[in-house]
Amino acid sequence: MANRPAADAVVVGGGIVGLAVAWSLLESRPGSSVVVLDKEHDLARHQTGRNSGVIHSGLYYAPGSLKARLCREGYARLLDFCRSDGIPHRVTGKVVVATSPDELPRLAALRERAAANGLDGVAELGPAGIRDHEPHCSGLAALHVPQTGIVDYVAVSRRLAERIVGAGGEVRMGVEVRGIDEARDGAVVLTTDGAIAARRVVACAGLQSDRVARMTMDDLDLRILPFRGEYFELVPGAERLVRGLIYPVPDPSFPFLGVHFTRMVGGGVECGPNAVLALAREGYGKWSVHPRDVASSLSWPGLWRIAGRHWRPGLGELVRSASRRAFTRALQRLVPDVESRHLVPAPAGIRAQACGRDGRLLDDFALRGRGAVVHVCNAPSPAATASLAIGANLVRQLGGHSWL
Question: How does DSSP assign 270-332, residue by residue?
Fold first, then answer.
């Protein structure tokens, strides 16, 4: 076929979502040509490689939302993937703990949401039940969620890349996308390594997703705001204070879960994260600044509307960023025996949070498409858990439009 494009599909982004999409394309259409592009020289350099490694159960998400449906489907797919490929993981369960009376109605609402989202075995705990699961944890009541687990998402990403290459696909690292031009029979991806023609392009660009989306969508209705999450780890002598995963009851008006404890699959206990507006999308030091990123955030009217609505919890996040003592006090609400001397700094992460012009933080996964190009514009947590389901869902959608 003389006019056949060089690739059936190009996937932009070598994080876990992009790799899962590429694998799903190859799995559904064996023999097709799929190319993954990433500007970094290593896989999973950003959100995928800098999160807590939690396998989420689907507890928090609005029933019927893409997040809820794809998290539950992705949970099952991810566990099957890890078992089949020998990737270390553990289903540990977690406790979500109410530490004040005003949190009890929110805990009850979470119990109802768990049932609506099809979670099994979620149990209500009193103080004694909390101590049965986490002897050093203190609270008025809690939910025990047995489905939650932990995994190394970088290991999952590497194995996905191996599968892609083994199925005849390509993973090209160190190749940055500079533009996407729509063509009569697909699109042309302009890169630092030349142009690639494709029938379909799926962009899973994470922290740069809005910029890549604007290559084909001048009227994009959102912008990525980067929020840095800072972590500590417990020193070895204090790891005994946490058996598994301990979470606070989240504030439904605020898009972050609050600082929590995670026993990691490779050992050790991670504490955090807080959430503060980052001054660089891919700069992980506290004082990392990228002028273009700062200008992008400050020029977006949605940021100022968020600040007006959430200034009080936002101020608390800034205080916890500036003061280890304040960070420790937040942790002590859950585990009173934790002390500041038990904490050592751990690598920070940055969350890509899509925000509308009206200041609405997009809570659900958001896809935008035009012609031959689909953009995954918002894929915050639980995107890693849901990644294989996101890929399968995208393939189902593309299949209805004869992507090959």
Answer: EEE---EE-SSTT--STT---HHHHHHHHT-HHHHHHHHHHHHHHHHHHHHHH-HHHHHHHHH
Return residue ranges of the chain for CATH 3.30.9.10.
91-148+223-356
At 404 the pLDDT is 37
Q: Is 287 exposed, middle or buried (0-12, 13-18, 19+ CB in 10 A)?
A: exposed
Would you state the pLDDT for residue 400? 53
Question: Which residues lie across from 263 on neighbouring strands?
Answer: 269
DSSP state of 365: -
Q: How many whole angstroms separate alpha carbon 46 and alpha carbon 148? A: 23
CATH topology of domain 7-47+154-221+364-399: FAD/NAD(P)-binding domain (3.50.50)
CA distance 138 to 220: 46
* pLDDT tens digits along 124-147: 999 999 999 999 999 999 999 999
Average pLDDT of 386-395?
95
pLDDT digits (tens, 9 = 90+) for 296-314: 999 999 999 999 988 888 8
Q: Distance (Å, rounded) from C-alpha 21 to C-alpha 393? A: 9
pTM above 0.90, yes or no: yes
